[in-house]
Amino acid sequence: MTGTARRRRRRAATARAGPPILLVVPAVLAVGFLAIPLLGLLGQTPWRNLAAELATPKVQTALRLSLVCSLGAVAISILLGVPLAFLLARVEFPGRNLVRALTTLPMVLPPVVGGVALLLAFGRRGLAGQWLDRAFGITLPFTTAGAILAEAFVAMPFLVITTEAGLRAMDRRFEDAATTLGAGRWTTFRRVTLPLIAPSLGAGVALCWARALGEFGATITFAGNLPGTTQTMPLAVYLALENDLQAAIALSLVLLVVSLAVLIGLRDRWFPTA
Amino acid sequence: MLRSWIRSAVVLLVAAMLAAACGSDDQPSAGSSTSTEIKVFAAASLTAAFNELGPQFTAANGGTKVIFNFAGSQALATQIQQGAPADVFASADTTNMDKVKDLVGTPQVFASNQLQIVVEKGNPKGVKGLDDLASGELMVVVPAPEVPAGRYAQQALDQAGIIVKPVSQEDNVKEVVTKVGLGEADAGIVYTTDVTAGGDTVDGVDIPADQNVTATYPIATVKASSNQAKAQAFMDLVLSSQGQQVLESYGFLPPPTS
Given B44, B46, B253, B255, which residue has the most CB atoms within 10 angstroms? Predict the structure, then answer.
């Protein structure tokens, strides 16, 4: 592998010269800045009653709901987002850049703004919501479905752009070869394309899920906050901060562990030399 | 193409933030003399009323500026405990004032607030009292039990012996008003002052005195303040008839006579 060789040579060169101090000082500050808050959290963790804190019905309910909602959001994202990624990567159509910009907008939009927008769109009086209410009697705010929708809104872009990047980077000649050999579209997709983009897809799903799990602003704004129905982990943390710091820290720790697990799962992708 | 789009978006965002940061240079810098300004930490529900009192204080006190820090009383009490530079503390409940009692002067109650049912403008569902909230036909939102307003609301419902199944426990009273104002919920329980502040999107339905809960608002000067005289002057203004009039115009009640 020439890439690895080059990297090794570069590393050797750096070792010889010693790392420039101009890089080291801000880099150390950056690491401290990012790590110290985590230490603060760990330092305040009530380790002795951690198990008891996590076993309370309130925490259990929030945990279960968070799992349901985040997995639901991932399911919606896969069902709708992966086909969108294919279209964006493979098909030239007018306004494609605009569609792509729209797709990524929720990544830069403050989630609370997203929540307000969802409320004005899918609320009982909203643009699409009033129609849903009249035609099917469906109201989304204050329901678990609403919480899933809010999480999908914020998390789907992560899956779309990661999958699209994977599709663009992939060598399409493999697909051409399969087609030449008589494979149909579905067989080609299943046996050639899917395995080739699996790492991107996996990373996209993991990012999407982590983002959905951590979603706060859009959820509390659009779906409200009710234990067992819409109160996911981040909402429970936020409200616990009002009167029960210990519970808030215990809940935060769970989210921290989950985030770490996702990072470790993705380490081969992001830190290939580690 | 995507990458270049993201890059230009980021550049634009950073530019906008820088512009915003530069634009706000009328704020006094941290190094400026503290004798010409006082910092008032006040409960979020006091925002509108105190913002009106601020300029009145400045005009009457030789240009001394008032800088407000509005937040939940709980957060403010914690900030004062952690040594935040406050001169005056106005809390929405006595609990949080008690938390900092060693750090402040003698508190005085300057206003009180009661609960009201908030409904959409014109009261389309014909809500008459707390009983109607228990019918199960209305989508009811309440403040979360973790925040003071939520505790009071629960207390009021308990007193009336009414069990309400809310569709949401919002993290603050303003959210309750917003959800009702948007028509997403049919009714909610908030402070009377929040209904007043909600403007023309909502109406209030009174809760009878025997079911209602009164929140009292104490104010005190902070002992660590380097400007006791001005801090006391602000407290006096709030307690004066001029201050009471402003508070009343925002729906606050006078301190309970007990």
Answer: B46
- Helix ranges (DSSP H) in B82-215: 94-99, 130-133, 148-160, 173-181, 192-197
Q: Establish if A124 touches chain B: CB-CB under 8 angstroms.
A: yes
The CATH T-level fold of domain B113-214 is: D-Maltodextrin-Binding Protein; domain 2 (3.40.190)
Q: Cβ(A204)–Cβ(A155) under 8 Å? A: no
Q: Token pair for residue A236?
A: 């429970």
Domain that holds residue A119: 57-270
Q: Determine whether the interchain pair A230/B168 forms a contact, defined as Cβ–Cβ distance below 8 Å.
A: yes
- Taking only the tens place, the pLDDT of each residue in B168-204 is 999 888 899 999 999 999 999 999 999 988 888 999 9
For the ranges A51-65, B18-32, B224-238, which has the lowest average pLDDT? Answer: B18-32
DSSP state of A142: T
Task: Look up the CATH architecture of domain B34-112+216-249.
Answer: 3-Layer(aba) Sandwich (3.40)
Say which CATH number the domain at A106 has. Answer: 1.10.3720.10
Q: Give the pLDDT confidence of A150-171 residue by residue, as tens digits.
A: 999 999 999 999 999 999 999 8
Closest CA–CA distance from residue A75 to any residue of chain B (Å): 24
Name which of B1, B167, B184 is nearest A226 (Cβ-Cβ).
B167
Domain residue limits, chain B: 34-112+216-249, 113-214
Cβ distance of A161 and B185 shorter than 8 Å: no
- Which of A134, A243, A245, A246 is the best mutation test for B, with the most CBs of B within 10 A? A243
